[in-house]
Specification:
Layout lengths: L14 H6 L6 E4 L2 E4 L6 H17 L7 E4 L4 E4 L2 E3 L3 E4 L10 E2 L4 E5 L5 H15 L3 E6 L4 E8 L2 E2 L3 E4 L3 E3 L7 E3 H5 L16
Parallel strand pairs: 4-7, 8-9
Antiparallel strand pairs: 1-2, 3-6, 4-5, 6-8, 9-10, 10-11, 10-12, 13-14
């Protein structure tokens, strides 16, 4: 998310503290430290986030029992960790409560912003790894590629790098192949041939 690196105040907080804060304030809680989630993300960040959500949702088989979510949705990972991933998938419906997600998603995607890149690549990556997220993807809007990490024996693998001209194959579901050109919108628009040699 596109938030500034600003702590609420020094000290450690719990999920109970987090849930008591004003509804019009947006924070994430990582290792008990609270981080402000303002300003709002850029239009390009939101475009890529929306494209990822749509691409996965349209390809997801209905019989998997999985549900896809988009920020802002609270995900409670522990008593001191509450995050709002840009896009994530939960395949255990028991984790979906009325107010938030209680437990670890199967897939998490973060779209980088200048103010969040260190946190997404270091702090959140470590949090998702120790929490047991099976697949973690970081999207780079300006550099037009993604890093994909898979959890193997409790540790994230070395990242797989997939460029905008390539296809991302998600471990979430067999056959879920997503051309990244449609995510980053790097493909030229399809032309309509009128049959008279004119392209409109």
């Amino acid at each position: 998310m596109g938030y500034a690196i600003k702590k609420k105040r020094d000290g450690k907080f719990t999920v109970a503290d987090y849930l008591a804060w004003a509804d019009d304030e947006r924070w994430e809680l990582i290792n008990g430290e609270a981080y402000d989630m303002t300003p709002a993300p850029t239009p390009r960040h939101q475009m890529i986030t929306g494209n990822l959500y749509s691409a996965i949702k349209t390809r997801m088989k209905k019989d998997t029992g999985c549900t896809i979510f988009i920020a802002p949705t609270d995900v409670v990972l522990s008593g001191h960790d509450v995050v709002q991933p840009d896009v994530f998938v939960v395949c255990d419906r028991r984790k979906i409560t009325i107010d938030h997600i209680q437990g670890v998603p199967d897939l998490v995607i973060e779209v980088l912003s200048p103010t969040t890149s260190t946190r997404d690549k270091r702090d959140k990556k470590a949090l998702y790894e120790r929490s047991g997220v099976k697949e973690y993807i970081i999207a780079y809007p300006d550099d037009l590629f993604i890093e994909r990490y898979r959890l193997i024996a409790g540790k994230f693998s070395e990242p797989e790098i997939v460029g905008a001209e390539e296809t991302l194959s998600l471990a979430l579901q067999e056959g879920m192949d997503i051309p990244l050109g449609e995510i980053f919108e790097t493909e030229p628009p399809k032309s309509l041939d009128t049959g008279r040699g004119n392209v409109v």
